[in-house]
Amino acid sequence: MNMNDLVIISVDDHISEPPDLFKNHLSGEALASAPRLCTAEDGTDYWEYQGMKMPSVGLNAVVGRVLEEYGMEPTRLDQLRKGIYDSKARVDDMNVNGIAASLNFASAVGFDGGRFHKAPDKATALIHLRAYNDWHIDEWCGSHPGRFIPCALLPTWDMKATVEEIKRLAAKGCATVSINENPTVQGLPSIHNAYWEPFWKAIADKDMTICLHIGAGNPAPHASMESPIEAWITTMPMSIAVGASDWLHLAALQRYPDLRIALSEGSIGWVPYFLERADFSHERHKAWTHSHFGNSRPSDTFRRHFLNCFIDDAFGLKNLADIGEDMVAYECDYPHSDSLWPNVPERLWESVKHLTETQINKVTHLNAMRFFRFDPFRYHKRETLTVAALRAQAAADKVDTTPRSFGGAHPLAPGEKPREITSGDLMKMFAHHAQAGSKAA
After folding, report:
1. CB 323 within 8 A of CB 268
2. Nearest Cα to 333, choosing from 10, 107, 67?
3. What's the distance, CA 412 to chain centroid?
């Protein structure tokens, strides 16, 4: 096996939604009241919904930009590569990057559908959430069968509606949902509350996978506004450990042994010590904590239920035996700033080439296929989804990967001498875009 033989499935990518995403799924007042893309006085785009504003439409959707223009840019759809919001162009960008299939999280309404949860009119929000799922499954994923893994949102503020939506999604062929890792931040009971019992049962009955994406429920902290931004970025993946520990101790995992939970964008290098610590804590404290692991260890539960997803983690792959070769999958994180697009195969191969061919196939695509109940080979011959085949198609289609400059705003003030960028600089940029959106409204 060599790099060009790889079949790569990315289990964590993102969409910056197009402005017309609801038009084919709603009409009348439901369409008029749906989330809409607006433009502020300073020319920046933002999403508006039920009085809420989501500034910086592209977040850090920066693939294809020169490295100097990363940060809280871009702020308009016309500053993005078309593949960030157009499914046909996305497939082109997947081809040039050697990516056979991709799971895509929402942006405008939140990785977990958080905007719908915050909406004051929940009846209307339910209509719009369902329409979003229809767009995502039928249009975005349905436009290229076998190239996208559908990932839907749920109205978990209403458990009856949530169970109904799970059943509806399953009937549409969707086997993955994304929810908040810490629903208490949405004003809901914790995952340890009986409120969630119908959810666990419905997910288990319909054989669905739950995605928990970093940053939704337990935001990655930064020490201070003066902390260098790279310090914040460094710890972002490891912030998922807080939610992972909470979910590891979920009693429902003992009642539903087949529940599957993906820790999206959390990486893998931290897992061996996490499991060691969990087992140690259990052994030392179980006599008085009355935890529910019985005669097993927390690490056994973790390796049975949790998929660990990595972008670039050579250390973790060197220690794959301590994580579990059946519970690791690759993610590209297109179009965010950590994404290695369009050079994923080169970087990934250097990290996996020491593994056996069986292990390589597991972490690059087989684990993803099994965990997300997704089979791209149902629609495409395997030989057409290798890095070599996809890049040959991209070359035939003349996919351009030349970095572009959009002259976007920079955290430094005009004329300010170069200095280390801080967390506060980025927060100020975000606040500026939010204020611009408020003025436009």
Report:
1. yes
2. 10
3. 29
Contact criterion met (CB below 8 Å) for 151 and 104: yes
Can you tell me the distance from the alpha carbon of 76 to that of 43, in angstroms, rounded to the nearest whole number? 8
Number of Cβ within a 10 Å radius of residue 27: 10
- Domain boundaries, given as residue ranges, for the chain: 7-440
Residue type, 426: L
User: Cβ-count burial of 283 within 10 angstroms (0-12 exposed, 13-18 middle, 19+ buried)?
Assistant: exposed
- Total-model pTM: 0.95
Residue-wise over 384-414: b if at least 16 C-beta within 10 A, else e? bbbbebbbebbeeeebeeeeeebebbbbeee
Q: Which string of DSSP letters, residue by residue, matches 160-189?
A: HHHHHHHHHHHHTT--EEE--S-GGGGTPP
Pairing of strands 36-39, 45-49: antiparallel
- Pick among 3.40.50.2300, 3.90.950.10, 3.20.20.140, 3.40.30.10: CATH of 7-440: 3.20.20.140
Distance in Å from the first CA to the final CA of the chain: 56
Instruction: Return d(Cα 413, Cα 170) in angstroms, integer.
Output: 50
Residue indicated by tokens 């200095």: 419
82-136: per-residue pLDDT in tens? Answer: 999 999 999 999 999 999 999 999 999 999 999 999 999 999 999 999 999 999 9
Q: What is the pLDDT of residues 196-238, one digit of tens each?
A: 999 999 999 999 999 999 988 898 888 899 999 899 899 899 8
